[in-house]
Amino acid sequence: MEHSKNASTNSKAADEKAAADVLFYVLNSSQPDQRELFLSKLLKTIWKQQRMVDIRFPNDQEAQRYDLNLWSFRPESFIHHALENSAPAPIQIYGETISQPCEDVLINMHPSFCEFHNRYQRTIEVLDQSEYLLEMGPIRWKQYQQAGIEPTIHKIGFTN
Q1: Domain ranges of the chain
Q2: Virtual CA dihedral for 71, 75, 77, 79, nearest 10 degrees?
Q3: pLDDT tens digits for 66-90?
Q4: Does domain 21-156 have CATH number 3.40.50.150?
Q5: What is the mean pLDDT of the chain?
Q6: In terms of Cα–Cα distance, which of 79, 123, 72, 80 is closest to 101?
Q7: What confidence category does residue 8 fall into, taking pLDDT thresholds of 50, 70 and 90?
Q8: Whole-angstrom Cα distance, residue 36 to residue 55?
Q9: 23 phi and psi, to 5 degrees?
Q10: What are the DSSP calls for 94-144, one per residue?
């Protein structure tokens, strides 16, 4: 009986920690296609983990363009996704507004801070070396810290 109480307490603590999980992936590239290629690889990994994902782009046009690109990412290896809940799928691609949050994983491809990130268990920011994202990244980092979250950073493609 005591073991199950501790397991329940540990599970609750894990859930609270998961709610504050923010990852920054910083790529050593300034090419938008490299950022989206990384996003597609990341989605494949998350999809294999059987998690739900909402992707937030700056606008509907960017979301629609990426949706079309994802169909041809690796034709032999389909990633089950949909545009703005047009079909049931574990990965939903949105413009700036997310109408029905999955509350599992948010990938913020939008250059600005996502005010509703706390509705998700994990938030992922994908940055590259483009001038605007380099400018906005530290601002978002500080906003997460002000919310009591210490993000984790992963640098991709940098030499030590």
Answers
A1: 21-156
A2: 0
A3: 998 888 777 667 788 999 999 999 9
A4: no
A5: 86
A6: 123
A7: very low
A8: 12
A9: -115, 135
A10: ESS--SS--SSEEEE-SSS--TTGGGSSEEEEEE-S-HHHHHHHHHHHHHH
Which stretch of DSSP H or E encloses residue 83?
A: strand 81-83
Element (H, E) at 42: helix 32-48
Instruction: Check pLDDT > 50 for residue 150.
Output: yes
Q: Which of 122, 129, 96 is nearest to 20 (CA)?
A: 122
Provide the pairing of β-strand 122-127 with 91-94. Answer: unpaired
Q: Which two tokens stand for residue 13?
A: 């603590």
Per residue in 126-141, pLDDT (tens digit) is 999 999 988 999 999 9
Nearest CA-CA partner of 43 in 80, 97, 84, 76: 80
* 8 Å CB contact between 55 and 107: yes
- Report the predicted TM-score, pTM, of the whole model to 2 decimal places: 0.85
State phi, psi for 127 to the nearest 5 degrees. Answer: -115, 155
Q: What separation in angstroms does the CA of 3 have from each of 6, 17, 125?
A: 5, 21, 37
